[in-house]
Amino acid sequence: MNIPHFCKLSAIVLGLCLPLLAVAQQKNGFDLGNALVKPDTILHGGPPRDGIPALNDPAFTSPSDDLPWRPDDLVMTLDLDGQSYAYPVGIMNWHEIVNHEVGGRPVLVTFCPLCGTGMIFDPVVDGATLTFGVSGLLHNSDLLMYDHQTLSLWSQIPGKAIAGPMAGKVLDRVRGRHELWGKWLQRDAGERKVLSTDTGYQRDYLRSPYGDYDHSDRLYFPVSEESRRYHPKTWVIGLEVDGEARVWPFPELENAGTPVQDDIGGQTVTIHYDRDVPTAWAVDESGNELAVTRAFWFAWYTFHPQTTIFRAGEDN
Question: What is the pLDDT of residues 93-107, one digit of tens each?
Fold first, then answer.
């Protein structure tokens, strides 16, 4: 073998491959070199970084009759410091992330239309307040957020950074609910404020860009774990306590009648179900409401394949 010729050829091949490897370690401009998941499972969702614009200076207004929301429109809600905020899903479908403050406290409101997950977080990590945008990437069909300060990628459902300088860090959850606009207006909630449609962007907030996705059995993107025990878009709430994941599918809650008492992670919780939304929430033994995850069945399962499942009529 001509060793010098072989070495020269190897150097050429390596020189050609290194740029390809570098590209493979980046997507939408994010460095995946230290990703906690396989980089090839981080997929382009379609839009570029910030192609779905987060709301970083959101305007809020008081509820009034001239707002476009109908009584049965879905809103995410947050009760904090004597105030109740509503984030219409009609707006969240188009923006997915709201960065704002409630009484001087930073709050991160997120929504993934593909997983049906509306989740609220405390964006303070190690004493630093982070703000977030939409990366245009997905993992297990779930929204990958990124923080503006370090460009780390964060997976919404686990609330965990999976790539970048923050990899391994976890956001604390903030309790919120999903409610119908009409019911939110009627309940005793203190001073009410609703996210304004005056976002600075031209969007049809009365139309979902995802059509009948909520009811279809199809997924737009692959996931790592699947179960056909329920229709993929069956609504559930899930909860993790001391490393145990448990899920309450809404058809099971419908059959069981609520409230129901159940155990998870050595704690007793009470589950309440509202079929009109539909939604459910959980309280602990002291009556404190817990931060549950309302999601499509497929989304909860792919992130929690070892989950236990509440079933009506069984000795749970």
Answer: 999 999 999 988 999
What secondary structure does DSSP assign to the chain, as a single string?
--HHHHHHHHHHHHHHHHHHHHHHTEETTEE-TT-SS-GGGEEE-SS-TTSS--BSS--EE---TTS---TT-EEEEEEETTEEEEEEHHHHHHH-EEEEEETTEEEEEEEETTTTEEEEEE-EETTEE--EEEEEEEETTEEEEEETTT--EEETTTTEEEESTTTT-BPEEE--EEEEHHHHHHS--SEEEEE-S-SSS---TTS-TTTTTTT-S--SS--S----SS-TT-EEEEEEETTEEEEEEHHHHHHH-SSEEEEETTEEEEEEEETTTTEEEEE-TTSPBP--EEEEHHHHHHH-TT-EE--TTS--
Per-residue pLDDT at 3 exceeds 80: no
* Predicted confidence (pLDDT) at residue 23 exceeds the cutoff of 70: no
Neighbour tally for 289: CB within 10 Å: 14
Whether 12 has a pLDDT exceeding 70, the answer reads no
Q: How would DSSP label each residue in 76-126?
A: EEEEETTEEEEEEHHHHHHH-EEEEEETTEEEEEEEETTTTEEEEEE-EET
pLDDT of residue 309: 98
- Pair 102, 86: CB distance under 8 Å: no
